[in-house]
Amino acid sequence: MTDDALPTDVRDAGAITPLFGPSAERLCHLTPEHLKFGDKYALLVLGRHLVLLPPRLAEFLRHLAEQPQLRPQFSRVGPGPRWLFTGMVPGKPISTHGMTQKLNGHGIRVRTARNAALAALAADLPSPVLADVTGMHRHTVLRWVTYARRDWAEYLAARAEEVTSSRS
Q1: How far apart, in whole angstroms, are the C-alpha atoms of residue 28 and residue 6?
Q2: For each successive 10 residues of the chain (168 residues), what is the average pLDDT?
Q3: Which CATH number belongs to the domain containing residue 33 in this structure?
């Protein structure tokens, strides 16, 4: 998030992914209306939930939201959403594949970052909230919650036995 050499959209999307783990589709469809700014806070709407943004990321996203759209909107019949992450097609957001390729191309491994976020969030959030924030199916979220709350006693016992046998 501190690399100024990264394009603005890559830096911002690359910061949101490991923090909140949204699906690529949800990430690509963010608009300035998903951002809520107060005097001392900034929130991002993910699903039906508001998540508190770190101050630096909030500053970056405010800047991204205030940037003028670089691509003309010729194909629009009427007013439509203004995307934070614009795509190649006028009036459309970047595709999920395009966003993933863009982030991966700059060294931000989307799958790894999202999985780390999901593991961390699954340990702290109720499964319905996690499903809504990330855009995942409830059954998938339940598997993540089970994984995150896994009992590591068996692993630790095996490691302790391994260490004991290597000392002998």
Answers
A1: 18
A2: 81 94 92 94 92 93 84 56 88 93 94 92 88 91 84 74 78
A3: 1.10.443
